[in-house]
Amino acid sequence: MKAHELYNAVDPALVTQMLNWFRDHDRNVYRSAVSTLAQTKKLRLEFIQKKPLPEQYAWVLKTLRGKQADTIGEHLLQAWFMAGNQEMLAKFCDAMGIEHDGKGSVTGDLPETIDAAQLDAAVDTLVASYDPKLVSLYLHVFNLQAPAGWDTLTAKLASDERLKLA
Which of 5, 73, 163, 166 is the most buried (most CB within 10 A)? Predict the structure, then answer.
């Protein structure tokens, strides 16, 4: 799935959670994202900023659901996971045997293949500790890191009922 497809499929509450995290922890990223999205629609940032927050979030989500927002949408998801969900990323990397910096940022190469049994165990670990919708979104974003994704991960996302986006 591409980023815009993820935004179309994901529970809007997760997008609200992400946007709230940026507003609370890194307003510059939030402002920059809204500004970039506004420019794609030929709008001024101030026009969006004048809206009440729920309307801003609804507009951001609607805009992220378009193909033209794929790049900014993927970057937002990556930044949120890398800065706001480090513990979960580290657990996943540990379970998969992927070298990382202790915060979930991969330090070596990504694996060429993913072992199905190892992935099953990693998913079980994550789903036991985190909201399954958040885990699913993360795994979809992780799958974007390989040009065609990983077949094993793609199959797991499609077949595991716990990993539904909405």
Answer: 73
